Amino acid sequence: MSNRFILSLDQGTTSSRSILFNHIGQIIASSQKEYTQHYPKPGWVEHDPIEIWNTQFETAKEVLAQVENDNATIEAIGITNQRETVVVWDRATGKPIYNAIVWQDRRTSKYCDELKAGKWAETIQYKTGLVIDSYFSGTKLRWILNQVDGAMEKAQKGELAFGTVDSWLIWNLTGGKLHVTDVTNASRTMLYNIRTLSWDEELLNLMGIPASVLPSVKSSSEVYGYSNGELASKPIPIAGIAGDQQAATFGQMCLDVGSVKNTYGTGCFMLCNTGQEVIESKNNMVSTIAWQINGETTYALEGSIFTAGSIVQWLRDELGIIRSSAEVEDLARKVEDNGEVYLVPALTGLGAPYWDQYARGAIIGLTRGSNASHIARAALESIAFQTYDVLKAMEADIGHPIKELRVDGGAVVNNLLMQFQADVLGVPVYRPTILETTALGAAYLAGLAVGFWKDVDEIKKQWAVDECFQKELNPDRVEKLLAGWEKAISRAMKWEEE
Ligand SMILES: Nc1ncnc2c1ncn2[C@@H]1O[C@H](COP(=O)(O)OP(=O)(O)O)[C@@H](O)[C@H]1O
Ligand SMILES: O=P(O)(O)OC[C@H](O)CO
Fold first, then answer.
1. Measured in angstroms, how far is the CA atom of residue 3 from the centroid of ligand 2?
2. Distance CA 89, CA 78 (A)
3. What is the atom index within ligand 2 of the atom nearest the CA of 103?
4. Which of 194, 344, 429, 473 could in theory staple to 362 by disulfide, Cβ–Cβ 3.0 to 4.6 A?
């Protein structure tokens, strides 16, 4: 087993990463490349699909090169990706016809309002598990087909392909042979019926999307096809696909009904395993497919927070009060508390549980004594407050308290944030030893499909705790902080309309 590895490709919102895992779930090699974010207009966020592919491919080549001399065998490739982001390309040339419209992009907000006014909310929630919001892929795909010159005509002739980022990577990895996605990614499009497990004709008609552009939908763990000669001389089976948040849920081994993880990356995404049941949220969570393995579909409730770690990047890149994300902790520790300053990070509106496309960011409660440290602290606290709001809504949906939270993602290295999170939630927060749980989850899904791991019982034992954060802050103080947060968020909501 020692020289046999799984290659995980983790295509995130801010960077492309490739990681090699061994049989005991350890990281053997990794490579990461950041790529360009495009903001052509306020509220718009785009990526260049070619840059996505190039950075992903280069990092994959780099990790393979690191084990080249070790007589290594790559048993399978697992793919995991930023979800909802839409790529449309020409089937003949393989060239994208427009930039990728990123999940954070709000350009279809008005159309979403029309759908809500047309009383589609209930049907869409029942069929897709989702809340109507420009976050999801369907309305972005519709925008490209309607706005790019000649796109609709070409789509109707079957000349265009649509995909979330997983489909785009696999198309390129196989030299244009495969146009597939998996159920987890399909469940984020607002076009896929998570009950019948098929593209929904009524919703395709509603949004005017020709079925010919759609990828075929597969399970999360099976051999879909093989990489072509460009990546490695021998074809490697591509054997796992999952959206990054679902992959992280799997990598965190949240296999039991009721287990919950929260990933702190660009945004924050909390998922609760609900087993074989679709729970129709009454508290603004979404229902989504967690994974499908061996014909069995597992569902999850999800609370999606749009801005989390990216508020720290904003402090770095736009406000300039830190030089690196890591510096935020030291800056925030220079003050004992937030000094009554609150930051609402609604830079691209608010996701769960508010779903306000028109909310915008705010820093409020400033006094003559407020300084950069208070703002840094308020930024970190805002991540924990948003998580609190989601956790409470989720508890209301599942009907019992959540007893512990497993955490991962780039921002969980921040001990101040993790401690404050435990303080605010009042439940233990478990940080595992492997923080790359997204990539690990995709590796597990791929490895299971090719028999690298026998079954989930074999991999379950690999999950281990690095640190458990327990609440320390007194409950009165927490209550006061939450009251301040609630007030601040109410001021930021519906800002753009006003
Ligand atoms: N020490 C830190 N404290 C707070 N946030 C951090 C820290 N280090 C990194 N981050 C944040 O984590 C995010 C990157 O996490 P990652 O999981 O790689 O995100 P993604 O997959 O969304 O690209 C960035 O937004 C960054 O600002
Ligand atoms: O790239 P991440 O880790 O920020 O994840 C993005 C989510 O998949 C968006 O739904």
1. 31
2. 23
3. 9
4. 344
308 C-alpha vs ligand 1 centroid, how far in Å? 8
Tens of pLDDT, residues 95-134? 999 999 999 999 999 999 999 998 899 999 999 999 999 9
Any domain includes 476:
no
* Rounded alpha-carbon distances, angstroms, from residue 173 to 49, 73, 166, 232, 236: 14, 18, 10, 10, 10
Q: Domains in the chain: how many in total?
A: 1
In a domain, 125, yes or no: yes
Mean pLDDT, the chain, integer = 95
Residue nearest to atom 10 of ligand 2 (CA): 83
Binding residue per annotation — 373? no
Q: What is the mean pLDDT of residues 210-223?
A: 97
Q: What is the 3-state secondary structure (H, E, C) of 171-230?
A: HHHCCCCCCEEEHHHHCCCCCEECCCCEECHHHHHHHCCCHHHCCEEECCEEEEEECCCC
Residue 68's pLDDT band, with cuts at 50, 70 and 90, is: confident
* Closest to 123 (Cα-Cα) out of 190, 218, 40, 71: 190
For residue 139, pLDDT over 70 is answered with yes
CATH code of the domain containing 88: 3.30.420.40
pLDDT tens digits for 462-484?
A: 999 999 999 999 999 999 999 99
Query: Quick one: which atom of ligand 2 is closest to the CA of 135?
Result: 10
Inter-residue contact 301 to 397 (CB < 8 Å): yes
Whole-number Å distance, alpha carbon 24 to ligand 1 midpoint, is 26
User: Please, are residues 367 and 327 in contact by the beta-carbon 8 Å criterion?
Assistant: no
Residue 13: which of 30, 35, 31 has the closest Cα? 35
Q: Is residue 109 part of a domain?
A: yes
This prediction has a pTM of: 0.94
Ligand 1 neighbourhood includes 329 CB (under 6 angstroms): yes
Across the chain, how many H-helices and E-strands are there? 16, 23
Please state the atom number of ligand 1 nearest to the C-alpha of residue 327.
1
Range of the domain at 122: 4-244
Closest CA to 11 of 50, 44, 46, 55: 55
Spatial separation of the C-alpha atoms in residues 100 and 10, rounded to whole Å: 17
Per the annotation, does 17 bind a ligand? yes
In sequence order, which residues have a C-beta less than 8 Å from that of residue 283 and are 6 or more positions away?
353, 393, 394, 396, 397
